[in-house]
Write a structure and sequence with these properties.
Blueprint lengths: L1 H24 L24 H9 L5 H9 L3 H11 L2 H16 L3 H4 L6 H11 L6 H15 L22 H12 L6 H22 L10 H19 L13 H6 L22 H12 L2 H9 L7 H11 L16 E4 L6 E5 L12 E6 L15 E6 L2 E3 L16 H7 L8 E4 L32 H5 L9 E8 L7 E7 L15 E12 L7 E11 L5 E8 L4 E3 L2 E5 L6 E9 L4 E6 L6 E2 L2 E2 L15 E6 L6 E12 L8 E5 L2 E6 L2 E6 L7 E6 L6 E5 L5 E7 L2 E8 L6 E5 L2 E7 H18 L1
Parallel strand pairs: 22-24
Antiparallel strand pairs: 1-2, 2-3, 3-4, 4-5, 6-11, 7-8, 8-9, 9-10, 10-19, 11-18, 12-13, 13-14, 14-19, 15-18, 16-17, 20-21, 21-22, 23-28, 24-27, 25-26, 25-28
Amino acid sequence: MKTNRKFRKINLLLSIFCLIVISSRVSAQIITTKPTVTKAHPRVFIMSEDIPKLREKINKSEYSQLKNTIYKSSQPIFKALIYLLDQNKSVGQSAIQAALSELKSTDASANGRKLWNSVFKGACVYDWCYDLLTSSQKQEFQKEFARIHNSHPPYWPVRSEDNVLTGHSAAGWYWNQIIAGLAIYNENPVIFDTAMDIFFKHVQASRNFYYASAMHPQGHYLAGYFTHEMQVAWLLKKLTGKDAFIPEQQYVPYQLLYSYRPDKQLIRRGDVSDDTGVYTNSKAALGLTAEYYNDPYLRYFHETGPFREYNEDVVNLFVKFLLRSSNTQTKSLETLPLTKYFPEPVGGEMIARTGWDLNSYNSPTAIVHMRIGQYYWGNHQHKDFGTFQIYYKGNLTGDTGLYQDGSDSDYNSIHWRNYYRSTIAHNGLLIYDPNEKYSGGTMSNTQVDGGARWPLNNNVNPRSLNELIDPRNGYQYGKIIAHEFGPESFKPEFSYISGDITWGYNYSNGVNTNRAKQVTRSMVTFNTDDAKYPCIFVVFDKVISTNSSFKKSFLLHSMYEPSVSGNKSTILRKDNLNGKLVSYTLLPDNSEISKIGGAGQEYLIQGKNYSGGTVTNRQVEEFSWRVEISPSVKREDDEFLHVMAVMDQGTSDPGAEKIISGNLVGAKVLDRVVTFSKNGSLLSHAKLNLDQDNQIYKILLCNMESGTWQVKKDGQEIARLDVSEEGKTLYLKSRPGNLEFIHLSLFDKDLVIEEKKQILQH
């Protein structure tokens, strides 16, 4: 218990430190107090001084098509804008009547979280046509705003900060109240004031906390959450001239850029309800952020990406007309670095690409997603800590399970609870304790899979940032040990990430026995620049269980039945895509490799299949098989070492060799060598012998002490290399021979000893 309390204190201090760091970066341009609201209208996205500029803008030739859309549209928000521009009262009164009619016909059960919903548009009409509103019409608008929002937390006005972190309350149900509250402020200031009070006490800090990751905790559902946040950022920027959030907000949509696959789909993150790759609402998130930060990459992807909108005319109204400046520069994604690291607290992951071609099923681009993860945020997130996905001419290995509205795999279904969100549905690690029990709460399951546990307080959706970072609640599952890519950033030859996910397998509340003393995963992706074998992936796991009888398993999922021969597992696409993945199990020695899947066993956990129901006619990637690798001998301490290569079908396998050299363990494949510390501790000295041949090897040593190193080959110094604190990697190119790596601190120490000897002898 003392150890647990110690870790809690350390963890809490780290979390507080993160918040202090974020706060220290908040400049004077960040809004910190509730803005003063004058009686003047308009003030919702459009200020009085904007109107002459908009009148001039709409008559420019480049806006002719949009002007035609605006003047022909029957949507009330367009009519309200026409009133602002032309002062045509009949059009303005028509906008008011149409907006009220839309509000009254709105089903409150879903409206609040929908983008560009009737409350959002009604607030714009209320504000833009304010001088035409009668007293009774003002009351009608406010009555409908209240009716819709009182059907769902956090209600009208906001009653609590609870549930504004990740649930549906964190979508439009909360953010609408800032927008609509500003529109009706003259008549009822309570709505805006209360919402802004919660904003400064809880919401702003939580968003700044996860914006630092350049990711959203709800995965690709970011569009339905983040877009509301960008709308309010724009609203407050217009009102005050200041930013609502830290500058890192700009990079949150970059997860869409880096996750985008050549088959027009996205690398999976959590619940995925749309396998066609178009992802409704993503376009708005890209566009609003691009214009706010004048980001040429986001603007390019907004313009050229595959994303659709259910109300694209409104998106274009805001993105291309109301909010776009005169600068419309775009930049192709091909000028972005091929690897991106997404930091904690949401990320702790890395995406490594070999190219940026985006629209070809036969593209030579390979993509590897390497995830450690830190916090479990609930809702649409999965327990996918310490996992990976690999794409090449088809999704070769990655997340499994189904997510289909109105089916056996819907949100909170048996399939969703027990299989889809669990570690077993991902390329992760299992440590199975047959005595472990899950409580089976409202949103969790009872089936134990051997993967990461549930939060310790049984609340799978943290209600606030304070609840999330409190160590007693167990929302932290992992932490980053090291990360680096290089040697040059634009086109890295290697991309490396390592993390500790021990917390995810352990309990500190006495409910279950801790399963692990250590669980670490290190992953390396090599961009080979070789058309035959474009990408090599190496993963090394150190797993020490608390009981030797707990079965440990390494998971590798596939869409079609894999083949297993000796220590080699082969995955092929069989749907007119030409991708192939070969995986070599180099450790454990004499491991047990088994295939699980096929009809009736696609989603098998401990003998029970959690069916996801009939697949709809969408372009679903139904992964039906997995390979499980386990040690053949039961013991507490095990190592897993796998080398994977992607290639076209028909290409011969590259082969892979295990390396064991003193305190090093690693692999050699093609002209690449990678090593790790056998016991996981940082190394200050290492030796590596490479067989004599004419090959020039590219060598990556991981788990190295930071600082300067001397490199010797066959006894002669050939280099002095620096190892960074964050990366802890040493990378060089060398011909074969006896290589020795000595940290400069040891080297200097030896020199001092030698000098002392010489002085004594003299």
